[in-house]
Amino acid sequence: MKILRIPDPFITQNGSSFAAVEAFSLLLLRMRSNRNLYDLVQNFDRSLAAISEVVNELLNFLEARWSHLLGLDINGILHPDHLRSYADAIDRAGAPLDTVWGFIDCTLRRVCRPTYHQGIVYSGYKKYHALKYQAVVLPNGMFGHLFGPIEGRHNDGWLLRESAILDWCQEHAYITTDDGHQKPLQIFGDPAYGVSEQILSPFSGVGDRTPEEQAWNTDMSKVRIEVEHAFGVAMNMWPAVNAWWKHKIFWTQPGTLYRVAILLTNAHNCLHPNQISTSFELDPPSVNEYFHD
């Protein structure tokens, strides 16, 4: 509780008082199940209203207190000194180049069809209503960046522009060579992201690939596939995020829930390194190092 800075006692706006460990336990139990809050009422001497209050208000507290950790945190896991170690780990894993420090991708999280403004969150590609997020996953298994929630109607390129991550990369993601020149480091994404000094993607387009291009794509795919498991790790850990039929964007907090789920996934990885960290043989930071002001 001290690491997360949860007040003890944690008092809701309506005056319900919870010990910090009780409040956090209720939040974890809520996120670990896609069932109703009634199950918690049966095991805790608390009313349904009080449990709902503490879960929602603790979600808001954690999001407000720690959202900077998911926002291109230059003072933490995205410090420029760390980017070089990430690129080295990806290089050791078999990448055909030594300048990729992370992997970028977007994910859609389904929500209930809203009563109003349905088209704003409707994904024409997936054919359902959703909120969208952009993430950069590091070879130590951490989510280094999370942008969103954004309305599901937007494409990946729109999120890339709005997040300004390429501007951040231009300013911070580089190394200085022995001769004094700046060598840019890149993030790697799918072909829709294109190619620049700050981002790379596989060879694509009309026509056959040359053997060299095909080999390059294959080698990058092998190292990227482990990182693609990151979204699945978070979803398996927190089943409540998958309960889309409960996520009503004008009534509940699906965006806050997802962002806190990613924060807690990172925290769990700090304590128990996940399969991505193990595959790249790169340890995540300690939980004390990760949660910083």
Polypeptide structure, described:
With 293 residues, this protein is an alpha+beta fold. It folds into two domains: 58 residues; 220 residues, no CATH class. It is built from eleven helices and ten strands. Strands 3, 4, 5, 6, 9 and 10 form a six-stranded mixed sheet that branches. A two-stranded antiparallel ribbon has the order 1-2. Strand 7 and strand 8 form a beta hairpin. The protein is globular and about 65 Å long. The two termini are 15 Å apart. 36% of the residues are buried. The model has no long low-confidence stretch (mean pLDDT 91).
Structure characteristics:
293 residues; alpha+beta; 2 domains; six-stranded mixed beta sheet; two-stranded antiparallel ribbon; 10 strands; globular
